[in-house]
């Protein structure tokens, strides 16, 4: 994609970025101002940012003829040379190109045949700059027709005035292929006049995605007193959040033609930071670090950002979101810990089968209960009671911090659950890990009408 943009700029092409939502099309277009000069001279008072040495309008040429070298000059910063318009069905030709201004004609005693009665639109007013139209298919076809001459000949036709202006203008556009069928389309003559069509895409790997998310997420939050708790989100946790977005982009339950926005990971990371901040305020933890049981608080960032196919809609947004989190955790677990054998006995050497003693402990009727609002000492006590769990976590990290060990210990439990070796029950903000058979019996009793109606995984 980047070489395509570079080549289009070097060729002086008007171009369009074509891609699914959340692929930073608008951000990329706005970043083009970095290639502009810091400031340029313009004829002061000019509507079209005219070059003081070569004005292109009648008033500009008149001013230069009358004042010569004394003509006033202003300096235009690079940020002012970028303008954009969100394409909506109510956008008019007058908005983009211009119209006759009857008030100007009346106050200056001009006839409607005088070109000076024209009030220029936002496009010519961006002369010597960059103009972007976002979501181009949403622009009505008759308005798209009005851009044809502007793109090819740089002509403006306003209420019968064929105005030839040497506009120094780069026109760029963005569009989502999904819009071609849902909301509108780009007319064929306009597509032909846009010199380059560049396809955008999502990050190809989690590390690149995590870098983008860290750049965009709001985590550096000042407190009124300045003495708020330190929120620490390790790199492993950030990678896991990116794995959730990656899982959504590979899921058969998610409509891939709609795409999964990069905003999913950004919003999820911000919610995780907020949940840690809330726990710090409630329990007085400082510094405060993530727990795996915090991930259920990320559901609001996921459910609103994935469009589901029919099967996903039948299951429900929250169920699909939990499955996506589970797939991400499973991917993270498999990359970090030894493989779980299909047949796991009730005992054995920790070196040969590091999970056997853990599963055997749960088969003895024991349960681990974890929650995001649990005091850390209670949370730690729940994990330490499982034989071999923390020892296994220590083998796969260089950190000695209890919070980091607790995260990895939870990852082991969740990995065993995702491989169907342990059962998990969710009740509000509380997660319980139990023997698989025992929880299946409880689930059957609840379906028969006894017990609570909590969500059972």
User: In percent, how much strand structure appears in the residues?
Assistant: 5-15%
Number of separate domains: 3
Largest beta-sheet details: 5 strands, parallel
Structural class label: alpha/beta
User: What is the CATH architecture term of the largest domain?
Assistant: 3-Layer(aba) Sandwich
**Strand tally:** 14
Q: Would you give the CATH topology of the largest domain?
A: Rossmann fold
Q: Span between N and C termini? A: 42 Å
- Look at the structure and give the CATH class of the largest domain: Alpha Beta
What's the helix count? 20
Helix amount: 40-55%
- Strand neighbour order, sheet with most strands: 4-7-10-1-11
- Radius of gyration, taken over Cα atoms and rounded to an integer in Å: 30 Å
Task: Sum up the overall morphology in one term.
Answer: elongated
* Poorly predicted ranges: 346-351, 450-457
| Average pLDDT score | 87
Q: Could you state the CATH homologous superfamily of the largest domain?
A: P-loop containing nucleotide triphosphate hydrolases
Observed structural traits:
457 residues; Helicase, Ruva Protein, domain 3; single chain; Rossmann fold; alpha/beta
Q: Quick gist of this model?
A:
The protein is α/β, with parallel strands linked by helices and 457 residues long. It has helices at 2-10, 25-30, 58-67, 93-96, 102-107, 141-145, 148-152, 179-182, 188-193, 206-216, 235-250, 263-283, 299-303, 310-315, 317-336, 356-363, 376-384, 389-395, 402-418, 436-447, and strands spanning 15-18, 39-43, 73-77, 82-86, 98-100, 118-120, 129-134, 155-158, 161-164, 169-175, 196-199, 368-371, 422-427, 430-435. The longest helix has 21 residues, at 263-283.
